[in-house]
Amino acid sequence: MKDRSLTAIASAGADVFDRVCNLTIDWMEAAMCDINAYLMKEGKQELILENVEDVETGPEGEIRLSNIFGEVRTVRARLHSLRNSEKKLVLVSV
Questions:
Q1: pLDDT block averages, 10 residues each, the chain of length 94
Q2: How far is the C-alpha of 93 from the C-alpha of 39, rounded, in Å?
Q3: In 3D, which of 25, 16, 55, 15 has the Cα closest to residue 38?
Q4: What is the DSSP track for 5-44?
Q5: What is the pLDDT of residue 39?
Q6: Can you give the pLDDT at residue 27?
Q7: In whole angstroms, what separates CA 17 from the centre of its chain?
Q8: What's residue 34's pLDDT?
Q9: In 3D, which of 54, 88, 53, 92 has the Cα closest to residue 76?
Q10: What distance in Å separates the CA atoms of residue 22 and residue 30, rounded to the nearest whole number?
Q11: pTM for the whole thing?
Q12: 82: exposed, middle or buried (C-beta count within 10 Å: 0-12, 13-18, 19+)?
């Protein structure tokens, strides 16, 4: 009888451990999710690059965006907003 109780406890413990590990992995993936960049034109936001990792300013109002896949976009724009909770960077064309 005692062995069955220990087996049940061990099984339940493994289930809880698996759930905690899965939640931790989900949280880490969400936290590591990169920002998407949008360019606002005529009041509408157009997605210009996903998974942005680096943002650099350049000469004459240029902003250079690069993502985790090595894609690069350079736009003449200024910062409108950055909403980290939404993982959203909005630029306005100049």
A1: 55 56 47 80 94 92 93 95 93 92
A2: 7
A3: 55
A4: HHHHHHHHHHHHHHHHHHHHHHHHHHHHPPEEEEEEETTE
A5: 97
A6: 46
A7: 26
A8: 81
A9: 92
A10: 12
A11: 0.64
A12: middle
Structure tokens at 17: 């451990």
Q: Name residues whose C-beta falls within 8 Å of residue 88's C-beta, 6 or more positions apart in sequence.
A: 35, 36, 38, 81, 82
Euclidean distance between CA atoms 36 and 90, whole angstroms? 9
User: Cβ(91)–Cβ(39) under 8 Å?
Assistant: yes
User: For position 90, what pLDDT does the model report?
Assistant: 96
pLDDT attached to residue 71: 96
